[in-house]
Specification:
heterodimer, A: alpha+beta, Electron Transport Ethylamine Dehydrogenase, three-stranded antiparallel beta sheet, 3 helices, 8 strands, B: mainly beta, Methylamine Dehydrogenase, Chain H, four-stranded antiparallel beta sheet, 47% strand, globular
Chain lengths: 173, 377
């Protein structure tokens, strides 16, 4: 778990260049928000107390990243960047990866491991409009912000205009 | 001479016979007025998914199946109607160059009779940007204050005085989000630990009291949906697994009034549970609840509803159920006489109507864009 936290922290640190955003995060912490800032803890906490968070996605499309059934997309919500000129964890040309994201947990169909997946939006262009998916494994309402997929997750990006969604493996749970 | 007279007579006869082929009078161009809103009018918020920097609201007479007018907004805007029905508001986000540039947020004001734009009130560029949900914005029942939920991702609420046309302040709501209007000058926010924060405003829109309840549900075990049905001081939350939490907001701090199940053992065995985008609606008096229900397993909370189940809130019992022609994603029940249930399916650009509470199918209105919320007078 420490390993995941370290990797996630580093990943966030690498992406977070805007001072205003850091200031806002600081405010979030100072404001005494009850949710821990890093999402990993919450996913872990949730899996211990509730029904299974992870599930393996059904064949036959679990390896096709241009379908909603692709295994990493178990909780993706939005247009797939892999159908929009990008990849499963890469933005289409000219779109900006958001430094912030919400998280889910998906089981890899082959190795059976539960991976923590960071669902990062690509921002700065209007929606691409291809391959709309609304998967909801582990998805929570707004009051559990970090697990909510309905928000525009472009905090810290140059604009909040949403283009498409990606799924980035952060680590194994 | 005789010949000329005959020709003249013939000409007159031809003109008369051709039935006033005389030229039409010039048209006089005007703009229609909307007139007083009727109970079966729907205000359908179209988020225009492929170009969401310009949202719009279609105003539709559902009885006549007729579009009456439209007002426009910005990026993923919310819509509000003043309680006296004299003004409409779009709570907007704009970028100076449409999809980039400087962000500015504003409350745009429209005359409800003419749909003409009247002006705007600037608010901090922090509003919660989301596929539109209820309770992202709200107006106090007296029409004085409009509140806007912010998420940057720090959470707060902007308070706008609609009388003085001014933004009057921001109320921090750490760990809690949304604005559930639950009383004269009162709102509640839903908190991460399963509690409710109740904030009472004074006459200047500043917080008079703010009290957080004890957690009334366990978000780790059975989360409630974040778009409950609100009737006056009472909020009905439905949960992923089909519980109803009836919360009383009449005091300074939210209290649980009742907790009961939407489903019987038999229903649960058959995997019936609530789901959709906006899965619950209350009748005007609050005597009935309507819930979108589907059969599905864990984490199917956003699966559209196959049926609407109707519950009596005092007996806490189901009194009816009816199938929907198209699975529903969001529902609403109209106010006033002869209520109808309005159902928006998922991404199908249409709204269906049914009698309420009987559930007799009335019809469908199409071409409403990407709509997730419908409201009405």
């Amino acid at each position: 778990m420490d390993n995941i936290v370290e990797r996630l922290t580093r990943a966030v640190a690498q992406r977070t260049s805007r001072r205003s955003f850091i200031a806002r995060l600081g405010k979030l912490v100072a404001g005494g928000m009850m949710i821990p800032l890093l999402p990993v803890d919450r996913v872990a906490a949730q899996s211990s107390s509730t029904s299974p968070v992870a599930r393996s996605t059904p064949a036959p499309n679990r390896d096709n990243d241009q379908t909603c059934d692709y295994w990493k997309y178990c909780a993706i919500d939005g247009y797939l960047c892999s159908c929009c000129g990008g990849g499963s964890h890469d933005c289409p040309p000219g779109a900006t990866p958001s430094p912030t994201s919400w998280v889910g947990t998906c089981r890899h169909p082959a190795d059976g491991k539960d991976y923590i997946v960071s669902y990062r939006d690509c921002c700065g262009k209007v929606p691409c409009g291809r391959c709309l998916c609304a998967n909801t494994v582990g998805e929570m309402p707004l009051y559990r912000t970090q697990l909510d997929s309905d928000l525009i997750w472009c905090f810290g990006a140059p604009t909040m205009v949403y283009h498409c969604s990606t799924a980035e493996i952060v680590g194994v749970k | 001479m005789v010949k000329r007279k005959a020709l003249f007579a013939l000409a007159i006869w031809v003109m008369a016979a051709s039935g006033a082929r005389a030229q039409l009078p010039p048209d006089q161009m005007t703009s229609y007025k909307l007139g007083a809103p009727q109970p079966h009018w729907a205000f359908i918020l179209d988020s225009v998914f492929l170009a969401p920097t310009v949202s719009k609201v279609d105003i539709v007479d559902l009885d006549a199946g007729k579009l009456l007018g439209q007002i426009d907004g910005g990026y993923l805007s919310n819509f509000e109607f003043s309680p006296d029905r004299r003004e409409m508001y779009m709570i907007d986000t704009f970028y100076s160059r449409a999809w980039h540039g400087t962000r500015s947020d504003a409350v745009s004001i429209f005359d409800a009779g003419t749909l003409a734009y009247k002006g705007e009130i600037s608010i901090p560029p922090k509003r919660l940007l989301i596929v539109p949900k209820n309770n992202t914005t709200g107006i106090t029942p007296d029409g004085r204050f409009l509140m806007v939920a912010n998420l940057t991702p720090a959470t707060s609420v902007s308070v706008v005085d609609l009388k003085s046309r001014k933004f009057v302040g921001e109320i921090e709501t750490p760990g809690c989000v949304q604005v559930l209007i639950a009383g004269k000058r009162k709102f509640a926010s839903m908190c991460a630990d399963g509690s409710l924060l109740t904030v009472q405003l004074d006459d200047s829109g500043k917080p008079l009291s703010r009290k957080q309840s004890k957690p009334f549900f366990d978000p780790g075990k059975d989360p409630v949906f974040d778009q409950p049905a609100i009737v006056g001081n009472t909020i009905y939350f439905d949960s992923y697994h089909g519980q109803i939490y009836e919360m009383d907001l009449s005091g300074d701090v939210a209290q649980t009034k009742s907790e009961w199940a939407l489903t019987s053992d038999e229903d649960r065995k058959a995997n019936w549970r609530p789901g959709g985008w906006l899965s619950i609606a209350a009748s005007e008096k609050g005597d009935l609840l309507y819930v979108l229900m589907h059969q599905g397993g864990e984490w199917t909370h956003k699966q559209p509803g196959k049926e609407v189940w109707v519950f009596d809130t005092s007996a806490k019992k189901r009194i009816g159920r009816f199938p929907l022609k198209t699975d529903g994603y969001s529902i609403r029940v109209s106010r006033g006489p002869n209520p109808i249930l309005e159902s928006l399916p998922l991404m199908q650009s249409q709204i269906e109507t049914y009698t309420a509470p009987e559930g007799k199918y009335l019809g469908v209105y199409k071409d409403i864009g990407t709509a997730f919320l419908v409201s009405g007078p």
